[in-house]
Automatic annotation (TrEMBL):
Gene3D superfamilies: Ribonuclease Z/Hydroxyacylglutathione hydrolase-like, Winged helix-like DNA-binding domain superfamily/Winged helix DNA-binding domain. Residues 52-218 form the Metallo-beta-lactamase domain. This is Metallo-beta-lactamase. The keyword Ligase does not apply. GO terms for biological process: RNA 3'-end processing. GO terms for cellular component: mitochondrial matrix. InterPro entries: LACTB2-like_MBL-fold, LACTB2_WH, Metallo-B-lactamas, RibonucZ/Hydroxyglut_hydro, Sec-metab_biosynth-thioest, WH-like_DNA-bd_sf. Keywords: Hydrolase, Metal-binding, Zinc. Belongs to the metallo-beta-lactamase superfamily. Glyoxalase II family. It comes from the Eukaryota. The gene is 6049167. It comes from Culex quinquefasciatus (Southern house mosquito).
Length: 308
């Protein structure tokens, strides 16, 4: 049975319609299979991306919260406190999927809101490219790849999936073969990433796990994980092929990112070219790591024997 809280009213359903996933904080944990969804939708940015926070909460009194959303979101905190009171539960652990503010920003608010805020542990995989976020009410506990949280017979495994960020993790619920993907795989559109080389490896890792369902950090629940992951991989491979083909056609020339955008993104509105140039840069960086392109001065050229 799934329970939905929306506008202060409780609704029960036998299954979770995907339409209810948009704009939802999903309270999630481990144990029995009753899950409470706390719903709040808002749309941000030109990409019309619905922000979603999912936290699993199940029927035992001990719960695990996955991500805490943005700071100072009073509606979310009010819903969370109501669920805690109505269900008579305790959040003993908060797992943060990565450093972005819409995942870690609300941690202090959550700790202020719960009775056991001083004893609740906050877990996060370490960054290797910048200092960690500073929390007012807790010290971050270091997550490790493969670390398991066992609650009432259910096993949640931490899997390091860099690419979107260096510290990004997903959570795999073994008993249900469910994956909580945070920002690695979205329910709509495609994600952004800092390192495409690492990101593609993370996608392949998740594909090998072969989850039965994916609960993303943004957008609708994904009931066809294999197809969605394959689509992500094929889309990126196609972009790579376009860039390699453009460079191969002019093997003696050097191109910067914007020159390649003008060759490849001819049908894209010009105001979107700067964003496209950023995408081209991360693709070229991946190809450089794979020794498929060479870097010369401020530009790039075709060269399968390029060295790192």
């Amino acid at each position: 049975m799934w329970f939905f809280v929306e506008d202060g009213r409780w609704t029960a359903a036998r299954s979770c319609p995907s339409a209810l996933a948009s704009g939802t904080w999903l309270l999630f944990g481990a144990g029995q299979r009753d899950v409470v969804l706390v719903r709040r939708a808002r749309v941000v940015g030109q990409r019309n991306l619905v922000r979603v926070r999912r936290v699993c909460v199940l029927t035992s009194s001990s719960r695990i919260l996955l991500d805490a959303g943005d700071p100072n979101v009073t509606d979310y905190i009010s819903h969370l406190k109501r669920v805690i009171m109505d269900e008579r539960i305790f959040i003993n652990d908060i797992i943060v999927s990565h450093w972005h503010h819409d995942h870690v920003g609300g941690v202090d608010d959550v700790l202020d809101a719960i009775e056991n805020g001083k004893s609740c542990k906050v877990w996060k995989y370490p960054r290797n490219d910048a200092p960690e976020p500073v929390l007012k009410n807790a010290t971050l506990q270091e997550l490790k790849n493969g670390q398991k949280f066992v609650v009432d017979g259910s096993t949640l495994e931490v899997i390091h999936t860099p690419g979107h960020t260096t510290d990004h993790i997903v959570i795999y619920l073994h008993e249900d073969k469910s994956l909580f993907s945070a920002d690695c795989i979205l329910g709509e559109g495609s994600t952004v990433f800092e390192d495409l080389y690492d990101y593609m490896k993370s996608l392949q890792l998740i594909s090998n796990i072969n989850p039965s369902v994916i609960y993303p950090g943004h957008g609708n629940i994904i009931n066809d994980p294999k197809e969605r992951i394959t689509m992500y991989i094929n889309h990126r491979n196609q972009r790579e092929a376009h860039i390699l083909a453009a460079l191969e056609q002019h093997p003696e020339e050097t191109f910067d990112e914007m020159q390649l955008v003008k060759l490849i993104y001819k049908d894209t509105p010009e105001q979107l070219w700067p964003a496209a140039a950023l995408n081209v840069n991360v693709i070229l960086t991946k190809l450089f790591k794979e020794k498929k392109v060479a870097k010369e001065n401020a530009g790039w050229k075709y060269g399968q024997t390029a060295s790192l």
